[in-house]
Every structure is written in structure tokens, then in C-alpha cells.
Amino acid sequence: MDGLELSRALHVVAVVIWIGGVAFVTLTLLPVLGRSRASDDWFVRFTAIERRFAWIARAALLVAGGSGFYLIVAMDAWDRFTMIAYWWMHAMVVVWVLFALMLFVIEPLGLDRALRERARRDPARAHLLVSRAHWVLLIASLIAAFGAVAGSHGAFLG
Ligand code: HEM
């Protein structure tokens, strides 16, 4: 197994853990917690569970970013960013940057506190907001993953 094969495998495993977790939170955890969104109890349980996953997601994000960067360097693939056929390369980077901002900047800066306040005032609306944000991130991630698998095997080249 050479460096390219190893980094590609690590990249995909990290993406599976991270985006799989986002899918679980969006499709299972939030809908179930939403059944008790009459009080902010849903938010207390949500943060307890998500806080633990956030550390796993941060680690997976770093592995996916590091291995992705290595792949670009090893394949000398920088010129792809100038071609529309490689839109999925841009999509991967955009999704990565969105999550990095959320997990390393916005959340530590007090997103939790702001949301807790909102959940106390209007728990149902806060649940809708958090669910919608997760849907947006999940759909963007799935588009990037779909494009990356298809594109790296020759799709979109015309
Ligand atoms: C900074 C962020 C990222 C960089 C630099 C990056 C870079 C790369 C590169 C260079 C490849 C190999 C393409 C090829 O073989 O032609 C790749 C493959 C792939 N990436 Fe990313 N990526 C990043 C983030 C992501 C994200 C966020 C996702 C998922 C949402 C993702 C999913 C994939 C998948 C599924 C493959 C295809 C593996 C295969 O089928 O061979 N990547 N990535």
C-alpha cells in the first residue's frame, strides 16, 4: 500500500465517521428529541450527546482534511480548482471549511450558550432552527461525497 492508497483510505474512513454522525443526528436524534420540544429539555439532552460527538467529528475532520491535502499534493491536482468539471473538489473543501468553522470557531465562541438561551425562550422554534441547520449541512455533505466518488472515477469529464 503506497502513500496515495493509504491516504485515500484514511480520507474515506474519516468522512464515513464524520458524515455518518451528522446523518444520525439529523435523521434520528433530532426527530426523536423533537417529540418533547414543548420544553427546553430536548436541548439539554441534545447538547449532552452532541458534545461527545463533537470531539469525534473534530478528530475525523482533521484526518479528512490532512489526508485530502496530502492527496492533492501527491497527485499534484491543484489545477483541478480551475476546472468546472471538478466542481466536487470545490464542494469537498467548502463542506470542510463550513464544519471547521462550526466546530473550531463558532461553537467554542458560544453558539451553545446562544442556542440554550433561545431554547429556553422558544424550545420548538430552537428545535426547528437546529434541525434545519443540520439538514443543510447533511445535504451539502452528501452532494460533496456523491460528487467525489463519481468524479474521482471519471464522471463529469464529458
Ligand atoms: C479540505 C477538505 C478536503 C480535501 C482537500 C479533499 C481532497 C480529496 C482528494 C484530492 C480526493 C481524491 C480525488 C481523486 O482521486 O481524484 C478526495 C476523494 C474523496 N473525498 Fe475528499 N477532500 C476534502 C474533504 C472531503 C469531504 C468533506 C468529503 C465528504 C463530504 C470528502 C469525500 C471524499 C470522497 C468520498 C472521495 C472519493 C474517494 C474515492 O472514491 O476514491 N472529502 N478528496
List the keywords.
single chain, 158 residues, mainly alpha, 82% helix, binds protoporphyrin IX containing FE
Detail the topology: elements first, then pairings.
Blueprint (H helix, E strand, L loop, with lengths): L2 H31 L7 H35 L11 H35 L1 H29 L7
Helix pairs in contact: 1-2, 1-4, 2-3, 3-4
The chain binds protoporphyrin IX containing FE.
Structure, explained:
This protein is mostly helical and 158 residues long. The chain has one domain. Helices cover 82% and strands 0% of the residues. The chain has four helices and no strands. The longest helix is centred in the middle third of the chain and has 35 residues. The chain starts with a helix and ends in a 7-residue tail after the last helix. The structure holds protoporphyrin IX containing FE. The site of protoporphyrin IX containing FE has 22 residues, from helix 1, helix 2, helix 3 and helix 4.
Count of discrete alpha- or pi-helical segments spanning 4 or more residues: 4
Q: From N to C, what is the helix and strand string?
A: HHHH
As a whole number of angstroms, the C-alpha radius of gyration is 18 Å
Largest pleated sheet: none
Extract low-pLDDT stretches: none
Overall pLDDT, averaged?
97
- Helix share, percent: over 70%
Quantity of strands, as a count: 0
Could you say how many structural domains there are in total? 1
The molecules bound to the chains, other than polymers, are: protoporphyrin IX containing FE
Determine the strand fraction and express it as a percent band. Answer: under 5%
Q: Could you tell me how far the N terminus lies from the C terminus, measured between alpha carbons in angstroms?
A: 31 Å
**Coarse morphology:** elongated
* Class of secondary structure makeup: mainly alpha
